[in-house]
Design goal:
It is a single chain. The chain has helices at 41-49, 91-101, 106-119, 135-148, 165-182, 193-199, 217-222, 227-232, 292-298, 312-326; strands at residues 3-12, 15-25, 30-34, 56-61, 64-65, 76-79, 153-157, 185-190, 202-207, 210-215, 237-239, 242-244, 249-252, 261-271, 274-281, 284-291, 305-310. By secondary structure, it is α+β, with helices and mostly antiparallel strands. It has two domains: 3-228, P-loop containing nucleotide triphosphate hydrolases (Rossmann fold), CATH 3.40.50.300; 237-326, OB fold (Dihydrolipoamide Acetyltransferase, E2P) (Beta Barrel). It has a six-stranded mixed sheet, sandwiched between helices. Helix 2 (91-101) packs across helix 3 (106-119), helix 2 (91-101) packs parallel to helix 4 (135-148) and helix 3 (106-119) packs across helix 4 (135-148). The longest helix has 18 residues, at 165-182. The chain is elongated and about 80 Å long.
Length: 327
């Protein structure tokens, strides 16, 4: 493992930011620390970087006990949400900064900066000031600067949080491709579930200072450890006394299935190809997600009588999973 966090706790006065957290972060992977605001994820990232000191516990980086090491001796690159650029320096000089303070040879610095600017697609902007770049370009510059010193670990704190939705999506795709090229162990903090599910190899869900679950995006989405993880990773609705994903439900004409719940369509919302149908089932309002073709085939409108059930393939998969778990 590249990073081993063992029994880490941190308080700020009476507030418990982290409570006996232990996490193993694999070498060469892209790991997301995911959770609600104030849950402790940024505090954990700053403890890994050495920017905060844990009250108890230990941090190892690449087999070295880094618990009491200064940030400069941990060989980590850190990217903040708001870039932290040197406004009076050009893009090239910003990227070169870490190498210059390490007194690397000028020829080596030039070669490394040229290589990184090509990698992040900013070669043509080398002589510009940060203020002359877009938000997405400044974030790519910040990543290049963090990578310049060849860190063993790259830490990103809400790296795309200050950007609009379209640019965030573009940079998520770009970060995934970049990581596949450089293979540096990367840990990023986000409260955006879609971002974590799309980009990460592994997700650590943190809430109220505790780790709720660790696993791949598929494992967490399909087999959440508890209701909090299920609610936090994607849409949920309630049918009877169970939580279920809206896309795992089916709508049927009345009388189709004696075991299905009966209800009335209250509201229909179209979002592109996806149709969200709200159905009153007793005192509950159940949300069902259909694609356009499914919706048109049912001919639904507000007031339609329908039946709601968990899709048979989903119910079957859950039953098989329970049997395997019992064995």
């Amino acid at each position: 493992m590249s990073i081993e966090i063992t029994g880490v706790s941190k308080r700020f006065g009476d507030f418990v930011a982290l409570d006996d957290v232990s996490v193993s972060i694999p070498s060469g992977g892209l790991t997301a620390l995911l959770g609600p605001s104030g849950g402790g994820k940024s505090t954990l990232l700053r403890i890994i970087a050495g920017l905060e000191t844990a009250d108890t516990g230990r941090v190892q980086i690449e087999g070295v006990d880094a618990t009491n090491l200064s940030p400069q001796k941990r060989n980590v690159g850190f990217v903040f949400q708001h870039y932290a650029a040197f406004k009076h320096l050009s893009v090239a000089r910003n990227v070169a900064f870490g190498l210059e303070i390490r007194k690397k040879p000028k020829a080596e610095i030039r070669e490394r900066v040229d290589e990184l600017l090509k990698l992040v697609h900013l070669s043509q902007f080398a002589d510009r000031l940060p203020a002359q770049l877009s938000g997405g370009q400044r974030q790519r510059m910040a990543l290049a600067r963090a990578l310049a010193v060849q860190p063993s670990v790259l830490l990103l704190d809400e790296p795309f949080g200050a950007l609009d939705a379209k640019v965030r999506k573009e940079l998520r795709d770009w970060l995934r491709r970049l990581h596949d090229e450089v293979h540096v162990t990367t840990v990023f903090v986000t409260h955006d579930q879609e971002e974590a599910l799309e980009v990460a190899d592994e997700i650590v869900v943190i809430n109220e200072g505790r780790v709720e679950q660790i696993g791949s995006p598929d494992e967490l989405y399909d087999r959440p450890a508890n209701d909090f993880v299920m609610r936090f990773l994607g849409p949920v609705t309630e049918l009877g006394d169970r939580l279920v994903r809206p896309h795992d439900l089916q709508l049927l004409p009345p009388g189709s299935d004696p075991g299905a719940a009966s209800g009335l369509v209250k509201r229909i919302t179209r979002i592109g190809f996806e149709i969200r149908v709200e159905v009153a089932v007793g005192e509950q309002t159940v949300t069902v997600t259909l694609n356009r073709n499914e919706f048109l085939a049912l001919g639904l409108h507000a007031g339609s009588e329908v039946q709601v059930r968990v899709a048979p393939e989903v119910a079957g998969a859950e039953s098989r999973s329970q049997v395997v778990g019992a064995v």
